[in-house]
Design a protein that fits this description.
- The structure holds 2 protein chains of 2 kinds.
- Chain A is of the alpha+beta class.
- In chain A, 40% of the residues lie in helices and 19% in strands.
- Chain A has 11 helices and 15 strands.
- Chain A is elongated, with a radius of gyration of 37 Å.
- By secondary structure, chain B is mostly helical.
- Chain B has one domain: Methane Monooxygenase Hydroxylase, Chain G, domain 1 (Up-down Bundle), CATH 1.20.58.
- Chain B is elongated and about 60 Å long.
- Chain B starts with 8 loop residues before the first helix and ends in a 16-residue tail after the last helix.
- The A-B interface holds A 98-99, 102-104, 127, 129-130, 132-136, 138, 158-160, 351-355, 361, 363-364, 367, 370, 372, 390-395, 398, 447 and B 4, 11, 14-15, 18-19, 21-22, 24-26, 28-29, 32, 122-123, 126, 129, 132-133, 136-137, 139, 143-144, 148-149, 152, 155-159, 162-163, 165-166, 169-170, 176, 223, 225, 227.
- Chain B: This is Phosphate-specific transport system accessory protein PhoU.
Chain lengths: 495, 230
């Protein structure tokens, strides 16, 4: 430790000089007076005591100094090396170990801020296995500690709502003396690289698979128009309108695929702005009024006043969530029914996915990373369509998944709406819950290929499907004045 | 005498729980890798899962030996005794978890020989992810003695059951549709069952954690799905 300077260093020789001077006085003065004797004795004693106490503090300071502390200075006046490491954006850890077979002896002796965040550490040090359980990483650490091997390991931080991929470099650190060994771990976020790779593959697979059907029908009609339907006016008009519809569908599909890719790309970057859910609901309802009127479906909204209760989020994306959910509900709502939209504040996540009220089945399609005390703003969109049976619920937010028996319907959809909703909510660290009561008629149709059930009288059983999107709130709003009920009664048509 | 071989009582206890966490990490990785081997039809990964299972068995034996030694020589009392006993029990659960993961890997070798069934393997992947997160939560709860997380794991097992029931029906439809897929589908069904049992082991571990921290058993019944139609 070349740069270490104990504060008492100069006093040690001073004390020695005093003691020595006392001795000389004692020896040099021939006729011995009592007071000179006392004075010189006190001098000697004082000198010895100061010597001893300074030496003791020096030794104490030395002993208290941790052996493995890295105290290399970058510059004489600059920040210490530890401060530099602490400020690094990439996670850095220093691990110490004693023996190969003693797992409880591996300690994290240094961790910078990024590492503490990654491994959810409360302190800068601690038992290694209590932070890192990944067997490959632990093996790499062991190799660095006891085998003097540097290497890089790929690992993924799974289990959370978003997967993240990391590359870690482990290498031994030289230490002199003591049996302790040190290893350095530096990690780098590889999520973006991996994500782009996977997304490209996914996009190509999805796009080619889903675009093939409309494309085949387009080219089929083109062939027909070129061939025997060349001079048939009526057929030409009919075919052209089908072709236009197919082209529309392809356009929608491409739009949805692109927006899904964009959302997936940013999924691990949490949004920073503020968004207002009641306002988003109002905007969506305004834009869908005409469509609802055409279908003869009323929309009822229960929400607090816009502008008072913001959540953390991206305005456009939250708008898209509400839009997609409402679109979906309108698609399956039978004529003359009501689509209900509710906005609730200060909600906790439902604990279990046990069947909710009565025969309703409930499933959490997306569970946020657990934070037990979080509160959420919930948007619940409920339609009184035929409902979805329990066994179909887990696959709902999958791309291009359609509930059996709905495929043949003439619904305009790309099969990506709920997937987009799920990814947006995942980016917002929220949750998505679906509840549904399906009609008994549908349940009994199991086995044989079921026809569309929407035509059955569904009013006898209160079937419904409700999607609830949970967005985390910054804080609890507490006592909320009961919001005004914006009921779009003017939309109500009786079928 | 080498000073490192003599350990204090506290160090021995720490060593025990550190080994359980290590074993937990290994079991976690086994489950994740087995599911990935199914999803990607990765034969090499499946084989490495099968091989690595031995390590889990060794760790379990080691933990058991250490726990028995500790009980015999140190006579732990109260929380120390609970810690020792629950370490032993959790190690057993983790070993079973590893066996189930190994079984999934073995079955993935068989189904990789038949036609890919992307819909079904995706369902396995989704269920595997859910079960992995359950396992991760319970191990987090163990290392930090966090009762609330253990409680959350314990009370949300129905979600896994729900997935299992959904898969059961899905598989039935598949097999009825095309009898040639029956043998592959049966393997997938057993995989789903194995995952469901791993979920059960996670709830068991949550119970052990609760016992370790409080010294009491759960009084109320666990919420369960009983609707199991034929």
């Amino acid at each position: 430790m070349p740069d270490y300077k104990p504060p008492a260093k100069h006093y040690v020789p001073l004390g020695a000089i005093l003691a020595f001077a006392g001795l000389i006085i004692m020896a040099a003065i021939p006729d011995f007076q009592p007071y000179t004797a006392w004075a010189s004795l006190i001098l000697v004693a004082y000198g010895l005591i100061s010597c001893y106490s300074r030496l003791q503090t020096y030794l104490e300071v030395q002993a208290a100094k941790p052996a493995q502390e890295i105290r290399v200075k970058v510059q004489p006046e600059g920040p210490s090396f530890q401060e530099v490491l602490r400020a690094m954006p990439d996670p850095v850890l220093v691990v110490s170990g004693l023996e190969p077979d003693d797992i409880a002896g591996r300690w994290v002796v240094f961790a910078n801020k990024a590492a503490m965040k990654l491994f959810r550490m409360e302190r800068e040090g601690g038992l290694l296995v209590s932070y890192i359980r990944n067997p490959e990483l632990l093996e790499a650490v062991d190799e660095a500690l006891f085998g003097n091997v540097s290497r890089s390991t790929l690992f993924d931080e799974t289990g959370g709502a978003q997967d993240r991929f990391w590359q870690s470099w482990t290498s031994p650190l030289p230490v002199e003396g003591t049996g302790k060994r040190l290893a350095l771990m530096v990690m780098r976020d590889e999520t973006d690289v991996r994500r782009i790779e996977r997304m490209r593959a996914d996009f190509l697979a999805n796009a080619s698979h889903e675009l093939r059907t409309p494309l085949a029908s387009l080219s089929g009609f083109i062939d027909t128009l070129r061939g025997h339907a060349k001079d048939d006016e009526g057929a030409r008009d009919k075919f052209l309108s089908i072709m236009a519809a197919q082209a529309d569908r392809m356009g929608r599909l491409i739009n949805d695929l692109l927006s899904l890719s964009r959302i997936e790309m940013n999924e691990h970057v949490p949004p920073t702005g503020e968004a207002d859910i009641p306002l988003a609901v109002k905007d969506v309802v305004d834009s869908l009024t005409i469509l609802a009127q055409e279908k003869g479906v009323a929309i009822s909204v229960t929400a607090p006043k816009p502008g008072l209760f913001p959540v953390i989020g991206d305005r456009d994306q939250i708008l898209q969530v509400v839009q997609n959910l409402t679109d979906n509900a309108l698609k399956y709502a039978p004529e003359g029914s009501v689509v209900e939209i509710e906005v609730l504040l200060d909600q906790a996540l439902p604990q279990a996915s046990a069947p909710a009220e009565g025969q309703a089945s409930r499933l959490m399609l997306l569970r946020p990373d657990r934070q037990l005390n979080d509160v959420y703003t919930v948007v619940r969109v409920r339609d009184h369509g035929p409902g979805i049976r329990r066994e179909f619920l887990p696959r709902l937010a999958e791309r291009f998944y359609r509930v059996e028996g709905q495929k043949s319907g003439n619904k305009l959809g790309t099969g990506l709406g709920l997937a987009i909703v799920k990814h947006i909510i995942s980016r917002h660290r929220g949750g998505l819950v679906v509840e549904s009561v399906a009609s008994e008629a549908q349940a009994s149709a199991e086995g044989q290929k079921s026809e569309r059930v929407a035509s059955l009288p569904v009013n006898e059983i209160r079937t419904f499907t409700a999607f609830s999107a949970y967005f985390p709130q910054k804080s609890v709003y507490g006592q909320i004045p009961v919001g005004p009920r914006l009921l779009n009664d003017d939309l109500k048509h009786t079928g | 005498m080498n000073p490192h071989t003599v350990k204090t009582y506290g160090e021995e206890l720490d060593q025990l729980s550190a080994e359980v966490i290590l074993m937990g990490g290994l079991a976690e990785a086994q489950v994740a890798d087995a599911v990935e081997a199914v999803a990607r039809r990765d034969v090499a990964l499946a084989q490495s899962v099968i091989q690595r299972d031995q390590r889990l068995d060794e760790l379990e034996k080691d933990i058991e030996r250490k726990a028995i030694r500790l009980i015999a020589l140190r006579q732990p009392m109260a929380s120390d005794l609970r810690k020792t006993v629950s370490a032993m029990k959790i190690a057993t659960s983790l070993e079973r978890t590893g066996d189930l993961a190994k079984n999934i890997a073995k079955r993935s070798l068989v189904i990789s020989e038949s036609e890919p069934m992307s819909g079904l393997t995706r369902s396995i992947e989704r269920m595997g992810k859910l079960v992995s997160s359950r396992l991760r939560d319970v191990l987090d709860a163990y290392k930090g003695s966090k009762l609330d997380i253990a409680q959350a794991v314990w009370s949300s097992d129905t979600e896994v059951d729900e997935h299992y029931n959904a898969m059961f029906r899905e598989l039935l439809t598949y097999m009825m549709g095309d009898p040639r897929t029956i043998s592959a589908c049966t393997h997938v069904l057993f995989m789903a069952k194995n995952l469901e049992r791993i979920g059960d082991h996670a709830t068991n571990m949550a119970e052990h954690i609760h016992y370790e921290v409080t010294g009491e058993d759960y009084m109320n019944e666990r919420p369960k799905l009983t609707t199991m139609e034929p």
